Amino acid sequence: MTTIFMPLLAPTNQLSYDVATFYNAALGIVVGAGAATLAFRLVSSLSPAYRTRRLLDLALSDLRRLLRRRVVSTVHAWDDHGIGRLSALPDSAEPLQRARPLAVVLAGAEIIRLRRSAHDLVSMRCSTPC
To answer: CA 53, CA 5: separation in Å to the nearest integer?
Structure first.
């Protein structure tokens, strides 16, 4: 209601009694909202198989990005991102299709842990006299 109230009544502007302008703006807002609703109804959703394959590809690209770059990320942030992808899987996904993104999440978390451990080992080695 606020998005419709503000442009139509314009409470911050000076009073203007131009009825034609008011009706023109109101008609534009109503027709625009109706066209958006119709567009959402006409656009079909993606098939569950395509969505599952797409989410797996995105999870794998996230893992590749994690391996390529030295992304300073926490395990918690990585897990949240991966679980977000897992929760977006359609209900019709098979257990194997659910296991693959889960394996990506677990592998990424271990990579982050190993990087931190390796960094700690290198810093400990350099701090002690040889």
So the answer is: 43
3-state secondary structure of 112: helix
Q: How many domains does the chain have?
A: 2
Do 26 and 57 lie in one domain? The reply is no
Same domain for 61 and 37? Answer: no
From first to last of its 130 residues, the chain has per-residue pLDDT tens of: 667 666 666 666 666 678 888 888 889 888 988 998 899 889 888 888 899 999 999 999 999 998 888 666 788 999 998 999 999 999 888 999 999 999 999 999 999 898 888 878 887 777 666 5
Range of the domain at 18: 2-42
Which residue type, as a one-letter code, is found at position 91?
Answer: D
- Same-domain status, 20 and 52: no
Integer-rounded Cα Rg, in Å, for the chain is 26
